[in-house]
């Protein structure tokens, strides 16, 4: 019905028109929930979920094993670097000790020749 006095179009809504969208919405929700419950309670779904969980478990395990392997390789490389550094320090110390010993021998020889 149109109200010409105000210039606004208004509609008369019946009770059936107001209830229909609500009933349709809840009917679809109920049907969806019933379908989901029936699917989840079937044996085929249990197998599917079990396979899916197993696959996800393998993937997650592989990711964490890869991270662990990378940490171990990094630790091994660090230990090698540290060992090489220690070896270099030891060799430098030995070279310095040989140099000091040679200097002492030269000093003793110079004292002996000077007498």
Model description:
With 115 residues, the protein is mainly alpha-helical. It has a domain at 2-81. Helix content is 85%, strand content 3%. The protein contains two helices and two strands. It has a two-stranded antiparallel sheet with strand order 1-2. The model has no long low-confidence stretch (mean pLDDT 78).
Q: Kindly name the structural category.
A: mainly alpha
Largest sheet: 2 strands, antiparallel
Query: Helical segment tally?
Result: 2
Q: Largest sheet, order of strands side by side?
A: 1-2
**SSE arrangement, N to C:** EEHH
- What does the overall shape look like? rod-shaped
Average the pLDDT over all residues and give the rounded result.
78
| Number of separate strands | 2
Distance between the termini: 137 Å
Roughly what percent helix?
over 70%
Strand % is under 5%
Radius of gyration: 44 Å
- Which regions contain 5 or more consecutive residues with pLDDT less than 50? none
